[in-house]
Every structure is written in structure tokens, then in C-alpha cells.
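To: structure desk
From: M.T.
Subject: fold request, one chain
Message: Could you run this one when you get a chance? Sequence is below, nothing fancy, just the single chain.
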Amino acid sequence: MLHGDVGLELAARVAAAVKSSLDLDITPAEALIRPSSRPGADYQCNAAMGLGKKVGRPPRERSPPRSSARWTAPT
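Reply: Done. C-alpha cells follow.
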């Protein structure tokens, strides 16, 4: 983990996943990881709108269905 900051670690992982899947370079800050106010979620990624603009497609075409977007910590 990066300096013990979960938000930074998640942002780095999102940036790496975007690079791997879309071949786009984004910074961890552009991953837009924020604490979530929704029950049952600790963090959320708000990068879909920006990514949609970068690839020229609507954000809903870029993001996976919610059920498959959940991440589980390795055991």
C-alpha cells in the first residue's frame, strides 16, 4: 500500500487498470477516488465522465455494470 493511504492505493490501481484496458495514461488524481456517502461503500471512483471524453464515448459505455465493478480485498 502507498504510505498506508487507501485512497492513494485505489487511485494508483485505477490508473493502472485504465492504462491496461484503454491504453490511456491518467494520474492517480484523475482517477477521482473519493470517500463514498452511500451505505455499504467506503470509496467511489468518479472518473467515468472524464474517461468518456478522452475516448470519445459516453461514460456508460466505458464503465462495467455495478455488480462487476465491486472490488474485494485479497485475503
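Reply (cont.): The radius of gyration is 12 Å. Let me know if you need anything else for the meeting.
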